[in-house]
Give the backbone structure.
Amino acid sequence: MLNIVIFGAPGSGKGTQSERIVEKYGINHISTGDVLRGEMKNGTELGQIAKGYIDQGQLLPDNLIVDMLAKTLDGFQDSKGVIFDGFPRTIAQAEALKAMLAERGQSVSVMLDLDVPEEELMTRLIKRGQESGRADDNEETIKKRLVVYHSQTAPLIDWYRQEGLYAHINGLGQLETITNEICQAIDAVK
Ligand code: AMP
């Protein structure tokens, strides 16, 4: 089983690279942001709760996200592995993921840290907002999301380093070059 955590600030290219990895390795993909946007679109209770946090650029409470993730994970049958995109975003979530996989006799294979300079993130997200109409891709909310990333999510870099699972990926440059670097990191743990 290949369990990959794709990590990085908002706008670092996690979604784009995940699609390529899914295609190459035939594994499942969980994007917690996509699941939440689906819940919002369907007007579910979780979607209504999520909207309040997403519009403010804040993270949802860990327990809500962990429950949601466990349900999605249980829905996969005959899986070759999973790429976790946008999760974990806090140390508590990383610990919950570790426990959840251990219960299933599995573990995280590698954490890929897509490293992109801050100015580039801002430019990419503003462009994405204009193209996709994603409501939280506006300058004010992007700034809040980056603050949240630095304070609550970036500490996971050291956490995964200590677990011996950290792989640095240069997230700036041609898509293909970035994908190649990612594939090398995955193939090294396969
Ligand atoms: P994303 O599409 O990954 O950028 O996520 C969009 C928004 O969904 C985030 O700004 C959070 O409000 C929420 N969200 C997504 N994943 C998580 C997570 N793992 N923990 C808490 N909130 C999350």
Q: What stands out?
A: Residues 10, 32-33, 36, 53-54, 57-60, 65, 86-87, 89, 93, 136, 145 surround adenosine monophosphate (CB under 6 Å). The chain has a mean pLDDT of 97. Residues 107 and 114 are 21 Å apart (CA to CA). The first strand starts at residue 2 and ends at 8.
